[in-house]
């Protein structure tokens, strides 16, 4: 409680607390957005840590590739199974199952589910890593040498996670399509040629999906870095930073997904 | 010109850590700051280089009020004032050698080869030779701590704050660090503040000792004066007795 709040009566104090927690998401969002220009400035400077970007991209990809494969394979299976049942019952025609599935996968589920996996696995890892650097005074040591912690730590992670998220989205969609095709073939006897059909997919779907993947690829590392940089003291501080990295990362993806969905819809994509 | 705290107060989330601390470090002396865990020694020291700002009071370093400086302006102070953190605070993706060399390159614009040469020589002064190429995670905490000392002293600062430099070191290496601290202070007139729990260091190399208790400066004097003082709290602390008037 700050001194100003102490002067308020109990009712006002309650309101102030509610007000503060209502505003909190906006402060957090603002802080995360403000990291972006500071991380991008890091790109211009000399002695750019290419080795660190590669290391980060490798570890981010390595950490999530299995998770993405398993999740997207089961998403493909489940969606096609339920879609197939509906088509069988309502339409009696199985030919739209593949095209409809592919359309919604590329536009919505593929990027968003991959984004959520990256937020949990990679975002959590980044928040923990940077959080423990805060707690063990490594960030302070950087500041002592006038080395900007954002440029040193956030910039390489931003680039690495951006590239990894794009690649994982492509990979995840491929896995989901493959598992969907197999499911449709085994359960409903749909031939692969009729399943793998892009007739319902328009360029707008692909563009929307790509915009989402790109937005998550930028957002997740920034949110996780913010969480890590705001770590408190002690190992408890690292734990809290990790949790908040995952929570803020995943929530942000859900919000971004709706916002981008609405905006692309408004633009007729 | 030196380091001075004037009536410094600092709280975190409403709980008071430092209360009205006034303390001046004499140029060229080795001042030890002692006190139980959690009395705010590290917090006090971090004010010197602007990593914390006081709630009230002033912090002066090299004739400047550092609590008013911006992050950019602080860099001039941070160039003059080295800080050995309580955690070794080495960057874990660089080897010990690179950890020492990196600030040298940034600060003096040295080439990779020159910086590495100097880094190797400073590492050997803190007793690290065969591990210089290892990553921090591959060596023990004592070696990490000594490497972090090398990283700071290599830059040749005019002021150095050491936060528990010998904690966790074996006796031989602890004395080696003491000698280094004393030598830098005597030969190159480095103004030195050492936070320590190590009684051998205190009575070995301190010019003066400040005793912090419950966030306040409780006693200040030469090691002999403190040893002979009959303040009950101070003598309980220095003798390390479990029974006594101290509130923990
Ligand atoms: N960044 C921070 N945020 C909140 N509280 C803090 C912060 N840094 C320190 N504290 C609190 O301030 C108090 C003093 O901490 P400090 O680290 O200065 O103790 P210390 O005297 O250095 O102890 P030790 O000998 O264990 O290192 C502790 O209670 C600690 O929890
Ligand atoms: Mg401390």
Total of domains of chain A: 1
The stretches of 5 or more residues of chain A where confidence is low (pLDDT under 50) are 1-6
| Gyration radius over CA of chain A | 22 Å
Measured as a percent range, the helix fraction of chain B is 25-40%
Number of strands of chain A: 0
Secondary-structure class of chain B: alpha/beta
Please give the largest β-sheet of chain B. Answer: 6 strands, mixed
Question: Topology of this protein?
Answer:
The complex is a heterodimer of chains A (269) and B (248).
Chain A: H1 3-6, H2 10-44, H3 50-91, H4 97-135, H5 138-144, H6 149-188, H7 192-195, H8 203-229, H9 234-266
Chain B: E1 3-12, E2 15-25, E3 30-34, H1 41-48, E4 56-61, E5 64-65, H2 71-80, E6 81-84, H3 96-108, H4 112-125, H5 141-153, E7 159-163, H6 171-188, E8 191-195, H7 199-205, E9 208-213, E10 216-221, H8 223-228, H9 232-239
Parallel strand pairs in B: 3-8, 3-9, 6-7, 7-8
Antiparallel strand pairs in B: 1-2, 1-4, 4-5, 9-10
Helix pairs in contact in B: 3-4, 3-5, 4-5
The structure holds adenosine-5'-triphosphate and magnesium ion.
Adenosine-5'-triphosphate binds at residues 12, 17, 35, 37-43, 86 of chain B.
Can you tell me about this structure?
By secondary structure, chain A is mainly α. Chain A has helices at 3-6, 10-44, 50-91, 97-135, 138-144, 149-188, 192-195, 203-229, 234-266. In chain A, helix 3 runs parallel beside helix 6 (149-188) and helix 4 (97-135) runs antiparallel to helix 6 (149-188). The longest helix of chain A has 42 residues, at 50-91. Chain A starts with a helix and ends with a helix. Mean pLDDT of chain A is 90; it is low at 1-6. In chain B, helix 3 crosses helix 4 (112-125), helix 3 (96-108) packs parallel to helix 5 and helix 4 (112-125) packs across helix 5. In chain B, the strands form two sheets. A six-stranded mixed beta sheet of chain B has the order 6-7-8-3-9-10, sandwiched between helices. A four-stranded antiparallel beta sheet of chain B has the order 2-1-4-5, covered by helices on one side. The model of chain B has no long low-confidence stretch (mean pLDDT 94). Chain B is an alpha/beta fold and 248 residues long. Chain B is globular, with a radius of gyration of 18 Å. The interface between A and B is medium-sized, with 16 and 24 residues. The structure holds adenosine-5'-triphosphate and magnesium ion.
């Amino acid at each position: 409680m700050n001194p100003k709040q102490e002067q308020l009566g109990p009712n006002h104090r309650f309101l102030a607390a509610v007000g503060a927690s209502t505003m909190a998401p906006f402060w957090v969002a603002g802080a995360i957005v403000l990291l972006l220009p500071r991380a991008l400035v890091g790109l211009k400077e000399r002695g750019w840590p290419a080795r660190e970007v590669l290391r980060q991209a490798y570890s981010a990809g390595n950490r999530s590739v299995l998770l993405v494969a398993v999740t997207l394979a089961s998403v493909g299976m489940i969606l096609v199974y339920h879609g197939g049942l509906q088509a069988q019952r309502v339409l009696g025609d199985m030919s739209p199952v593949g095209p409809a599935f592919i359309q919604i996968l590329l536009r919505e589920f593929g990027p968003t589910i991959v984004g959520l996996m990256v937020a949990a696995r990679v975002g959590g890892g980044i928040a923990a890593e940077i959080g423990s650097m805060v707690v063990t005074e490594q960030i302070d040591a950087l500041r002592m040498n006038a080395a900007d912690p954002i440029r040193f730590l956030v910039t390489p992670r931003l680039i690495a996670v951006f590239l990894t998220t794009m690649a994982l989205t492509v990979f995840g969609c491929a896995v989901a399509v493959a598992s969907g095709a197999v499911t449709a073939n085994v359960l409903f006897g749909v031939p692969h040629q009729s399943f793998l059909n892009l007739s319902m997919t328009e360029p707008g779907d692909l563009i929307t999906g790509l915009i989402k993947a790109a937005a998550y690829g930028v957002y997740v590392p920034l949110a996780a870095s913010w969480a890590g940089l705001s770590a408190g003291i002690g190992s408890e501080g690292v734990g809290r930073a990790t949790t908040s990295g995952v929570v803020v990362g995943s929530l942000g993806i859900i919000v971004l997904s709706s916002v981008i969905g609405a905006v692309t819809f408004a633009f007729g994509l | 010109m030196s380091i001075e705290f004037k009536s410094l107060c600092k709280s975190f989330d409403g709980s008071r850590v430092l209360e009205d601390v006034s303390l001046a470090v004499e140029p060229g002396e080795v001042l030890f700051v002692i006190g139980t865990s959690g009395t705010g020694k590290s917090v006090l020291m971090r004010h010197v280089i602007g990593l914390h700002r006081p709630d009230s009071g002033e912090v002066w370093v090299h004739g400047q009020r550092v609590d008013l400086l911006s992050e950019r302006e602080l860099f001039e102070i941070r160039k003059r004032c080295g800080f050995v953190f309580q955690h070794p605070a080495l960057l874990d993706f660089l080897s010990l050698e690179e950890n020492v060399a990196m600030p040298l390159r940034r600060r003096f614009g040295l080439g990779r080869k020159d910086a590495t040469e100097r880094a190797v020589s400073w590492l050997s002064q803190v007793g690290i030779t065969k591990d210089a190429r290892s990553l921090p995670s591959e060596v023990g905490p004592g070696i990490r701590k000594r490497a972090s000392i090398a990283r700071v002293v290599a830059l040749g600062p005019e002021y150095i704050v050491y936060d528990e430099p010998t904690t966790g070191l074996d006796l031989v290496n602890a004395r080696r660090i003491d000698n280094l601290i004393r030598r830098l202070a005597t030969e190159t007139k480095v103004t030195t503040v050492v936070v320590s729990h190590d009684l051998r260091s205190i009575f070995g190399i301190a010019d003066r000792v400040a005793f912090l208790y419950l966030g306040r400066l409780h006693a200040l004097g030469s090691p002999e004066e403190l040893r002979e003082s009959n303040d009950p709290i101070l003598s309980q602390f220095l003798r390390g007795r479990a029974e006594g008037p101290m509130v923990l």
